[in-house]
């Protein structure tokens, strides 16, 4: 990505092939502790695009915008920002016109509007059957030293069922387990599977896990949220940045890294591109699996 110099005027013209984006306030600090300014952020997004976009395209996008950087006021946005450029695809769901994040141009435009987080719908537009199962691992503590132990326990259970999945950090305090699946089962059936996994683990390790929905009743236990992966609900897309002081990124990790007790803060905007160049997209290496035989054995 090349950007043209501007003499005294503050905006910078960013060029990506034939695409041009006028970036105002290029030197505005976005993650001040990490030294990341607005133009830096847009440059990093352009390098993240090939990895992030496959997990956002075809889905409804919810963003969180921080016009003054992470320490300023923020707001959630579901409706496409107006005016919406011609290159941005949108889709109506109910009375909301969502952005569909399916191009580098759309991603950089959203970045220029200070969209610092990209949360996508679990369901794809026009496709009722999911292509993945996810379990949200949500600690009650802001810093949870047992997070990777919890991730590991979920992985061991899935492995015992003959299933391969991969964890990703949420980029905040928790993690998600992601398992690509063959299409054919409904979100309701996936929820039944998630309920079984979560309740089994909570019964096996009641000091570590809970399926208690009310936060005030969880104590210090880690909530296994099997309800969040459902049509109409959102989770942070893989490789989405998070508006936290460490500029963390929701990052797929290996089971070896889980055993080494990595932290969500280990993966951030200043090192994620080098990691992806070295390891590639770990999620793409897992083949979609059939869940029908496992579902057939679950109690109704």
UniProtKB/TrEMBL annotation:
Q: Where are the transmembrane segments?
A: none
Q: Which UniProt keywords apply?
A: Ligase
UniProt feature coiled coil, ranges: none
Specify the DNA ligase D polymerase domain's residue ranges: 38-282
Q: Which InterPro entries match?
A: LigD_pol_dom (IPR014145), NHEJ_LigD (IPR052171)
The UniProt GO MF terms for this protein read: DNA ligase (ATP) activity
Q: What is its EC number?
A: 6.5.1.1
Q: Which Pfam families match?
A: LigD_Prim-Pol (PF21686)
Spell out the PANTHER family in the cross-references. Answer: BIFUNCTIONAL NON-HOMOLOGOUS END JOINING PROTEIN LIGD (PTHR42705:SF2)
NCBIfam families, per the entry:
ligD_pol
The protein depicted here goes by the name Non-homologous end-joining DNA ligase
